């Protein structure tokens, strides 16, 4: 680099000087000295004004500015490079050889700033040149809507769902009351509820939501209020521009706390009311493990507790009280022992109702056996007395 600098300082008018300048700029780019590259690129562009060389020097300076995070300075150079033309020696109007790369960098600058409309405009100019530009443009133009898997609300409170959307102008929202326990046990997942046959069933609620146009090309979230006063489980379907999203809304005073013992594949479930924090006895509980072959089911005891053993994979827990109140839990941890680790023995298997009467039953059996033994002894004594009298 010192030789190139010495040559340029001693022979600035030499026909090879512009080529030496390009080599110098590339050398500084190669060692990632972007500050020096930016400065030299601008200096040489002012000296060698022939468009072929000046354009290259300025482009190198813009790239260096971009790598330094000085996007505004880079844009000031890249925009003229991407839009201007000049005539070559033959008089033919030409674009800069760096035009496509300038478009691509400008697209990335706007993309990083989340200025998606401008980013898409520049990506579209080079989508046939750079595969990444094409793929990114497809992603930006993708239409989608989404709902949370489960939204909970308390009876009497405002019910809202977060409807996420991109490149969709409007969506129709339909709400259906469902039996969550039956629905989940049939589907084993809530991911496929969009395919549930609802033909002939009228929705409890139907409304259309209009989205702001500035939401195009990026995911935005709209809070959609639903007039759901009664407790229960509701299937929410949002559809717009051939896109579908589904989710569940639970309006319930129930809440559930779940403690997971991952190695043992055990869940300790506590169900209570939110309004007064009282434990709920007799709630139906169903536990599904993503890798389990069977469903663990039971009822909460007087403490509102239920223990589920033998759960494998990630867990889903549904608690129901009566016909309309639900609580829902989705585990994030994989349950069950590893192949190299034996299953931990249960330290507190929950007792069923019969277990609490075991002592009474055992005592009754003991008393019956005791009476039977005494009867046999009496019979034996009577037989011996009869035999003695017969001998006499």
Q: Which key features would you list for this structure?
A:
Immunoglobulin-like; Serine Threonine Protein Phosphatase 5, Tetratricopeptide repeat; single chain; 3 domains; 11 helices; alpha+beta; four-stranded antiparallel sheet
In short:
The chain is built from eleven helices and 17 strands. It has helices at residues 2-10, 17-30, 34-47, 51-67, 71-83, 99-112, 116-125, 131-141, 180-187, 353-356, 358-391; strands spanning 85-87, 93-95, 144-146, 150-153, 159-166, 170-178, 205-210, 220-226, 232-240, 243-251, 254-261, 266-273, 284-289, 296-299, 305-308, 315-321, 325-330.
Describe the structure.
38% of the residues lie in helices and 27% in strands. The protein is an alpha+beta fold and 392 residues long. 29% of the residues are buried. The model has no long low-confidence stretch (mean pLDDT 82). It has 3 domains: 2-141, Serine Threonine Protein Phosphatase 5, Tetratricopeptide repeat (Alpha Horseshoe); 144-251, Macroglobulin (MG2) domain (Immunoglobulin-like, Sandwich); 254-350, Immunoglobulins (Immunoglobulin-like), CATH 2.60.40.10. A hairpin with a 5-residue loop joins strand 1 (85-87) and strand 2 (93-95).
Write the layout of secondary structure elements.
Blueprint: H1 2-10, H2 17-30, H3 34-47, H4 51-67, H5 71-83, E1 85-87, E2 93-95, H6 99-112, H7 116-125, H8 131-141, E3 144-146, E4 150-153, E5 159-166, E6 170-178, H9 180-187, E7 205-210, E8 220-226, E9 232-240, E10 243-251, E11 254-261, E12 266-273, E13 284-289, E14 296-299, E15 305-308, E16 315-321, E17 325-330, H10 353-356, H11 358-391
Parallel strand pairs: 4-10
Antiparallel strand pairs: 1-2, 3-5, 5-8, 6-7, 6-9, 9-10, 11-12, 12-15, 13-14, 13-16, 16-17
Helix pairs in contact: 1-2, 2-3, 2-4, 3-4, 4-5, 5-6, 6-7, 7-8
């Amino acid at each position: 680099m010192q030789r190139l600098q010495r040559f340029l300082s001693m022979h600035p008018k030499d026909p090879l000087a512009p080529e030496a300048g390009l080599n110098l700029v590339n050398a500084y780019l190669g060692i990632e000295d972007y500050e020096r590259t930016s400065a030299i690129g601008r200096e040489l562009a002012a000296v060698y004004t022939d468009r072929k060389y000046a354009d290259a020097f300025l482009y190198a300076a813009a790239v260096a500015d971009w790598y330094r995070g000085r996007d505004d300075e880079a844009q000031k150079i890249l925009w003229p490079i991407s839009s201007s033309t000049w005539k070559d020696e033959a008089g033919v109007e030409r674009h800069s050889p760096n035009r496509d790369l300038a478009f691509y960098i400008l697209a990335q600058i706007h993309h990083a700033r989340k200025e998606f409309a401008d980013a898409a405009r520049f990506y579209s100019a080079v989508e046939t040149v750079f595969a990444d530009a094409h793929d990114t443009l497809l992603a930006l133009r993708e239409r989608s809507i989404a709902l949370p898997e489960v939204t909970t609300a308390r009876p009497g409170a405002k019910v809202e769902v977060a409807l996420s959307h991109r490149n969709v102008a409007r969506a129709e929202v339909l709400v259906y009351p469902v039996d969550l326990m039956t629905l989940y046990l049939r589907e084993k997942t809530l991911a496929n509820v969009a395919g549930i046959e609802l033909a002939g069933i009228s929705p409890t609620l139907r409304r259309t939501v209009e989205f702001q146009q500035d939401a195009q090309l990026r995911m935005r979230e709209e809070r959609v209020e639903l007039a759901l006063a009664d407790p229960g489980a509701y299937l929410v379907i949002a559809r717009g521009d051939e896109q579908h999203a589904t989710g569940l809304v639970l309006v319930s005073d129930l809440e559930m706390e779940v403690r997971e013992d991952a190695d043992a594949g055990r869940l300790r479930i506590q169900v209570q009311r939110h309004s007064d924090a009282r434990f709920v006895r007799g709630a139906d509980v169903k536990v599904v493990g993503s890798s389990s072959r069977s469903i663990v089911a039971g009822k909460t005891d007087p403490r509102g507790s239920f223990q589920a053993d033998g759960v494998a994979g990630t867990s889903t827990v549904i608690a129901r009280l009566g016909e309309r109140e639900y609580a829902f839990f989705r585990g994030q941890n994989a349950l069950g022992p590893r192949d190299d680790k034996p299953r931990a023995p249960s330290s507190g298997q929950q007792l069923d109702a019969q277990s609490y009467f075991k002592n009474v039953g055992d005592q009754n059996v003991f008393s019956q056996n005791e009476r039977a033994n005494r009867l046999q002894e009496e019979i034996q004594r009577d037989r011996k007395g009869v035999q003695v009298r017969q001998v006499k």
